[in-house]
Design brief:
The chain has 72 residues and is an all-alpha fold. The protein has a domain of 41 residues. It is 71% helix and 0% strand. The protein contains one helix and no strands. The model has no long low-confidence stretch (mean pLDDT 87).
Length: 72
């Protein structure tokens, strides 16, 4: 009789652990989904910024020294 009670306790504990593991997997899946959305957004932003840059590689960007404030 006690063996069945011990088995019931073990089964209940395993069910609890499986339930917690399922919740954790769902949370991780949601986190991964949000991160993938952020990666896609950032990739689009990067592509947009690259389009705004000069197309020629030889084009020199202005130096910060060329833009010194007037009091220097």
């Amino acid at each position: 009789m006690q063996t069945e009670t011990e088995q019931d306790k073990r089964l209940t504990e395993l069910e609890i652990k499986v339930g917690l593991a399922d919740d954790l997997i769902d949370q991780l899946n949601q986190t991964l989904f949000r991160q993938q959305q952020q990666i896609e957004f950032l990739a689009k932003e990067l592509a947009s910024l690259r389009q705004q840059m000069p197309h020629e590689r030889n084009t020199q960007l202005p130096s910060l020294r060329d833009e010194l404030p007037p009091h220097y």
